[in-house]
Amino acid sequence: MSGAGTPDFFYREAQRLGYVARSAFKLLQIQNKHKLITPGSSVLDLGCAPGAWLQVACQSLGPLQSGGAVVGIDLKKVKVPSAHCDARVQTVSADVVKLPMDQKKGFSVILSDMCPSVSGITTRDAALSMELGMRALELAVGRAAASIQQEGSVDGPSAADDTDESGILLSGGNLVIKLLESEDIQDFTKICKPLFRKASWLRPKATRSSSREIYLICQGLQS
């Protein structure tokens, strides 16, 4: 695999197929393996810039008449890509942890590709990644995540005081969270297993060899 910033197979394929970034192939692999997004799904994409996951999510909804919706949230203002997207895709410029109230509705799939600004200090970057991951989890499932974290004495960041009682992920819904590999990431498995029917890890083939990114795939939120 080529180093960061070097054009490689996935970069060239993204250009050829009209994706705005090579990261599209990460979600494509996740989707091909787990079928998280189905026709009619309502999808929330956290940290959606530059928009590649919006494209794949919209494609996964099927034809326009199948319905569904994709909402992308990012601190940056993100323009909906013209390729692979249709009227079902919209973006909101906002802080994920301070979502506009009109966006706090139920979603059947929540995708978090959020990543902190990498400092190069491994432990610091991993801790920031864990914090973003926990924010995404608590947004999805509400106080249930914080409760399990406390009951199990699982170390790690929590925003329990700022967390809504109920999350915005619908019962039976799916959640994807990107983290940077560290000895602490198994904490997420301990928290998610009681909440979801299945929780597993995946390192997509499109991930650069120099990257420590890994994805936690949570399927079937339990009522």
Q: What does this entry look like structurally?
A:
Belongs to the class I-like SAM-binding methyltransferase superfamily. RNA methyltransferase RlmE family. This protein is α/β, with parallel strands linked by helices. It has a single domain, classed as Rossmann fold (3-Layer(aba) Sandwich), CATH 3.40.50. Helix content is 29%, strand content 22%. It contains six helices and seven strands; from the N terminus they run ααβαβββααβαββ. α3 links the parallel β1 and β2. α4 packs across α5. The termini are far apart.
Main attributes of the structure:
223 residues, alpha/beta, 6 helices
> What percent of the residues sit in helical stretches (DSSP H or I)?
25-40%
SSE sequence, one letter per element:
HHEHEEEHHEHEE
Our estimate of the beta-strand percent is 15-25%
What's the Cα radius of gyration? Answer: 17 Å
CATH topology type: Rossmann fold
* Uncertain regions spanning at least 5 consecutive residues: 152-161
Query: Residue-averaged pLDDT, rounded?
Result: 86
Number of strands: 7
Strands ordered across the widest β-sheet:
3-2-1-4-5-7-6
CATH class: Alpha Beta
Protein name: rRNA methyltransferase 2, mitochondrial
Keywords: Methyltransferase, rRNA processing, S-adenosyl-L-methionine, Transferase
InterPro entries: RNA_methyltr_RlmE, RNA_MeTrfase_FtsJ_dom, rRNA-MeTfrase_E, SAM-dependent_MTases_sf
GO molecular function: rRNA (uridine-2'-O-)-methyltransferase activity
Task: Please give a quick description of this structure.
The chain is α/β, with parallel strands linked by helices.
